[in-house]
Design brief:
Layout lengths: L1 H16 L7 H5 L3 H25 L34 E4 L15 H8 L6 E4 L2
Antiparallel strand pairs: 1-2
């Protein structure tokens, strides 16, 4: 723990106090090439922390849930109910749970794109005969 304490209490304050930060706006125009090079690492660190904070706390770019799961299967019905006779299933069948399949009620793997887009972990219901 001693190296961390030394870094926080001594090294970092010394480093920051030695940065060539001018007292006025005109001072920025008088900085030399070496002064600008010295300002690159702390500027990059601040920019990186700002970007990480923005990505963590701002919902922009994240898919928002629509509230509706089924957007295309039997939309004219008040409730989608499918009856499958167990004798019609061969050894096993994968049934869709994401409502994205084009082969309803069987899974066609459409959940893969949905999972990638939303960060979800949906998969099919697999029914097997014993």
């Amino acid at each position: 723990m001693q190296p961390v304490a030394h870094l926080v209490k001594v090294s970092l304050p010394n480093y920051l106090s030695n940065l060539p930060i001018p007292d006025s706006i005109g001072g920025w125009f008088r900085l030399g090439f070496r002064d600008w090079l010295a300002l690159i690492p702390p500027t990059a660190a601040v920019a990186g922390l700002t970007y990480i904070s923005y990505r963590a706390f701002c919902p922009h770019g994240r898919p928002q849930p629509s509230g509706r799961v089924n957007t295309k299967i039997l939309m004219d019905n008040p409730k989608v109910v499918d009856m499958i006779d167990i004798e019609d299933i061969s050894e096993k069948a994968a049934l869709c749970r994401c409502w994205k399949t084009k082969n309803w009620p069987y899974c066609d793997g459409s959940h893969g794109a949905h999972n990638k887009e939303t960060g979800d972990n949906l998969g099919p219901v697999v029914v097997k005969r014993k």
